[in-house]
Design goal:
InterPro entries: WbsX. Helices cover about 40% and strands about 15% of the residues. With about 375 residues, the chain is of the alpha/beta class. It has one domain: TIM Barrel (Alpha-Beta Barrel), CATH 3.20.20.80. Helix 4 (about 110-115) links the parallel strand 2 and strand 3 (about 125-130).
Length: about 375
């Protein structure tokens, strides 16, 4: 360690060291977090069971976080914890009749982010949640492309390969929309051509892939990148226990990252599953597996493990070293990072992990 320079206080030195660590972490990982907006009070997600039986999940701002003031506070907290962008779960409204494809209350947080006075602190991208109930209609594809391109023109929108990044949750749903994987590929080419005509370099399109057998569909459909939403089932796949230590998630998640990258030649964006405990949204007679031990320490370990894995696997990941956390605010599924009124301040685990200087990469 170099000696102190004359005139530099200990406090000043510590500050410079923190900035250096932060810059180092920034270079090694550009970290995002999936943002789910079921917290407007206009959807069914804020259940009595969640409010009454899981008070440790209530954000410091209260359960209804989809307001302009609270969005700006969330941006500040996320940025101060080492998070670089929000990946908004975006919902197509199949009942819009083509008049307003974005008119769904679960897109409210995205609209608030785009209006926030401090939005330049974070970037953003979208993950199109085209699962059951939100399947895209082929006849509305052009309108959807035009709407997404309008988002891409925002200066804070995340780019990969100098192209705006968009992710699709359900590959098979999109194949059902267009009929074949080849037709999906054609739709993607139309999308990219539209973007170029609007002055962009194109579009980087990512597929959520949770198992290697799905990689063939990603290839045939013309996706550019593979990524994940969460891999919670891998965390307890080798046990029949209802409650599984959360360390199992971290260990087995690395196995799925390895399996996907070894089986595919497409660049990868790893997803980090911070927790899974869906009891607030389950019927009283359902007892599905869940994790125990969720804390700022478990989050710290999960993010640190991903940073180390990425340092060993630079050739497998996208430029900019992007990873994404599941999730910022999935309270019903037990995966959240927002500071809460009670319980552990789990977002501090992200901050610690992003300031930790990882060992030099020695692997391939």
């Amino acid at each position: 360690m170099r000696p102190f320079k004359p005139g530099i206080s200990l406090i000043g030195f510590v500050f410079m060291l923190s900035v250096s660590f932060a810059a180092n972490a920034q270079q090694e990982m550009k970290l995002g977090a999936y943002y789910f907006d079921g917290w407007t009070g206009k959807t069914y997600h804020l259940t009595d069971k969640l409010k009454n039986n899981f008070p440790e999940r209530e954000p410091v701002w209260g359960w209804l976080t989809s307001t302009p003031e609270i969005m700006e506070k969330q941006i500040d907290v996320a940025k101060g914890s080492g998070i670089d962008f929000f990946d908004f779960c975006w919902y197509y409204n199949p009942l819009s009749g083509g008049k307003d494809v974005a008119n769904d209350p679960k897109n409210n947080a995205l609209n608030l982010y785009r209006q926030a006075r401090n939005k330049n602190k974070l970037g953003y991208t979208i993950m199109v949640a085209n699962h059951e109930g939100y399947a895209i209609k082929a006849e509305e594809w052009n309108d959807l492309c035009n709407y997404w391109i309008s988002l891409f023109k925002d200066d804070t929108y995340l780019k990969v390969y100098d192209k705006p990044l968009i992710t699709f949750y359900d590959m098979m749903s999109l194949i059902r929309t267009f009929g074949t994987s080849g037709k999906v590929k054609e739709a993607f080419e139309t999308f990219k051509s539209k973007a170029v005509k609007e002055g962009l370099q194109g579009v980087s399109i990512a597929a959520i892939v949770n198992e290697t057998v799905s990689l063939e569909w990603a290839n045939k459909s013309g996706y550019d990148i593979i990524t994940g939403y969460n891999y919670h089932t891998y965390g307890y796949q080798y046990t029949s226990n209802e409650v599984v230590p959360i360390d199992s998630m971290r260990i087995n998640e690395e196995r799925i990252w390895n399996a996907l990258t070894r089986a595919s030649d497409k660049p990868f964006i790893p997803a980090i599953t911070v927790n899974w405990d869906k009891r607030p949204w389950e019927a009283s007679d359902v007892r599905s597996p869940r994790f125990s031990g969720f804390s700022n320490q478990s989050v710290n370990q999960a993010v640190s493990a991903c940073r180390e894995w990425m340092a060993r696997n630079r050739s497998e990941i996208v430029p900019g070293n992007i990873a994404v956390l599941y999730a910022w605010n999935e309270y019903g599924e037990g995966a959240y990072l927002t500071p809460c009124k009670t319980g552990d301040d789990v977002v501090q685990g992200v901050k610690k992990a992003m300031l930790f200087q990882i060992p030099s990469a020695t692997g391939p």
